[in-house]
Q: What sequence folds into this?
């Protein structure tokens, strides 16, 4: 019986060793499969890059093939004498002045518009001025003639004030001159 138990023990040990060897083999296969699973996205990415490069190369090949066919047709037409021949008669010349913008025309238009704007501002300032300057203004405002008017008293120590119209005209003239100078400097020079 001891012999029989010894034989069973040896058989069990052999089976155990075989199972351990098989488990080791399966672990090796499992690690290999896990490595393949990890590497699969990289392989797919490489495959897509190669496919994209292949499509690009095909498109370039088709374009080159079309150009070659066009060149052969053109060559055959030239050889047959049916093609148009192009020759440059004279070399291109550099322009001496710019085609656009017409700076002198812009300067003239700006000068005219500045003059109109300055005169309009002077006229509007005079029309919107609500100061009363004499008997005529009182008669225009009230609609009746004034009974009397106080004359201007001249005193040697007081300065005489001039009316505002020359000041407006001087301001307008200075504005027009500055605008004209700015336009000339900017566009003509």
A:
């Amino acid at each position: 019986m001891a012999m029989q138990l010894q034989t069973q023990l040896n058989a069990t040990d052999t089976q155990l060793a075989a199972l351990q060897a098989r488990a080791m083999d399966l672990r090796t296969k499992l690690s290999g499969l896990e490595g393949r699973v990890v590497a699969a996205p990289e392989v797919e990415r490489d495959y897509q890059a190669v496919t994209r490069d292949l499509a690009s190369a095909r498109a370039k090949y088709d374009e080159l093939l079309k150009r070659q066919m066009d060149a052969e047709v053109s060559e055959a037409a030239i050889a047959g004498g049916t093609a148009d021949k192009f020759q440059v008669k004279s070399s291109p010349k550099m322009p001496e002045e710019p085609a656009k913008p017409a700076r002198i025309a812009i300067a003239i238009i700006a000068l005219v518009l500045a003059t109109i704007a300055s005169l309009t501002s002077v006229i509007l300032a005079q029309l919107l001025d609500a100061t009363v300057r004499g008997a005529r203004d009182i008669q225009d405002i009230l609609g009746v003639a004034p009974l009397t008017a106080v004359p201007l008293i001249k005193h040697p120590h007081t300065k005489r004030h001039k009316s505002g119209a020359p000041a407006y005209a001087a301001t307008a003239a200075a504005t027009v001159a500055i605008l004209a100078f700015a336009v000339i400097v900017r566009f003509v020079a």
In short: The chain has two domains: 1-80, 103-146+165-188. Residues 39 and 150 are 109 Å apart (CA to CA). The longest helix spans residues 2-80. Residues 1-80 form one domain.
